[in-house]
Design goal:
This protein has 207 residues and is α/β, with parallel strands linked by helices. It contains 8 helices and 7 strands, in the order H-H-H-E-H-E-H-E-H-E-H-E-H-E-E.
């Protein structure tokens, strides 16, 4: 665990290789988020997502639950676009969807992105019946905290063996997702918590 955290910290501090237009877009979204009190992913979380995709060449199909205005999407797409990967991202709030589309289109990432404007649980219930199993290599979840367990249960059949599932905000808002922790512990499902920011962290489950 200590080794993993050290590697991540070194990476986050040293690896910030973005093209100028991506870097400027990230700064623009962060500035807008701070001004309008939008809960964007932190820089450390964004860089970690980029790190995971860059260093796992098998990751080509990604599902994101809760994209807001697309900041986390851009971190992931900065790597997915290099391997002709695909991001399915779910966002339900109308004004967030508008900003998400604008930000994704401005970087010409729309060709690698499928924006799903539906309630996440309803959509996941639907695709569990419609699509083939084992579709996604990576799932990033940063939506309604009290529904984290529901999201997890609904993605089990659409993720591959060896898939990586990442939950954001699992320390700061642990009290909102006690049912997720209880389920994982009861079912003896291994998970790793990384305190990636001073006040919060992410949970990683490898299927």
């Amino acid at each position: 665990m200590i080794t993993v955290i050290c590697v991540i910290i070194v990476y986050i501090k040293k690896y910030k290789m973005f093209s100028k237009n991506i870097k400027n877009k990230i700064l623009e979204i962060r500035k807008f988020g701070l001004k309008n009190n939008i809960p964007n992913v932190t820089e450390n979380v964004g860089l970690f997502l980029k790190f995971i995709i860059k260093n796992n060449s098998n990751i080509k199909n990604v599902l994101e639950i809760g994209s807001c205005n697309g900041l986390s999407s851009i971190y992931m797409l900065s790597e997915l676009s290099k391997r002709n990967g695909k991001l399915d991202t779910i966002e339900y709030v109308p004004h967030s969807i508008l900003r998400l589309k604008k930000n994704i289109n401005s970087l010409e990432f729309n060709k690698y992105t499928n924006i799903i404007s539906e309630d996440a649980i309803l959509y996941l219930n639907k695709i569990n019946k419609e699509i083939k199993k084992n579709k996604y290599d990576l799932v990033f979840i940063d939506a309604m905290k009290k529904q984290y367990l529901d999201y997890y249960l609904n993605i089990k059949n659409i993720t591959k063996k060896g898939s990586i599932i990442i939950f954001d905000d699992v320390i700061k808002y642990k009290y909102k997702m006690e049912n997720l922790y209880n389920y994982l512990n009861k079912e003896k499902i291994d998970y790793t918590i990384i305190n990636i920011d001073s006040d919060d962290g992410i949970m990683i489950i490898k299927k």
